Amino acid sequence: QVQLVESGGGSVQAGGSLRLSCAASGYTYSRNCMGWFRQAPGKEREGVAAIYTGGGSTYYADSVKGRFTISQDNAKNTVYLQMNSLKPEDTAMYYCAASPVNWAHLFPGRYNYWGQGTQVTVSS
Fold first, then answer.
1. Would you say residue 4 has pLDDT above 90?
2. How many angstroms separate the CA atoms of 56 and 35, rounded?
3. Of 73, 22, 32, the residue nearest 52 (C-alpha)
4. Is 62 helix (H, G, I), strand (E, B) or coil?
5. pLDDT score at 18
6. Four-residue CA torsion sign, 39, 84, 54, 27
């Protein structure tokens, strides 16, 4: 089993920044890939960023490239999502997820474990 706890969400104005954290516990082999996803009301859950915990390779949705950065601190079993230049369209519930496969990338169906989510609201 893997437990994921997100934190760091909040309300900011457009152009602002937030850093989300995801503290992970449980079987290490079940979290070869860690991802951040988001879901806005009435929309499907979409992948935002992912990181292969073994080699550090990262993947981003086109909509956040150049603005968001995913990183990890293996000593703390924590994955971060630094979000800069936030836009109102970034408003959503953000979820951390863990996958046992290296090639999970940004596909929600490839992730087995999910956190409870943290709300991000960006006002114009």
1. yes
2. 12
3. 32
4. coil
5. 98
6. negative
Residue appearing with tokens 């979000």: 83
Residues 6+ away with beta carbon under 8 Å from 48: 35, 36, 37, 38, 60, 61, 64, 68, 81, 94, 106
Decide if 48 contacts 36 (C-beta within 8 A).
Answer: yes
Whole-number Å distance between alpha carbons of 50 and 35: 4
User: Which tens digit of pLDDT belongs to each residue from 26-77?
Assistant: 877 677 899 999 999 999 999 999 999 888 899 999 999 999 999 999 899 9
CA angle 29, 35, 39 (to 5 degrees): 140
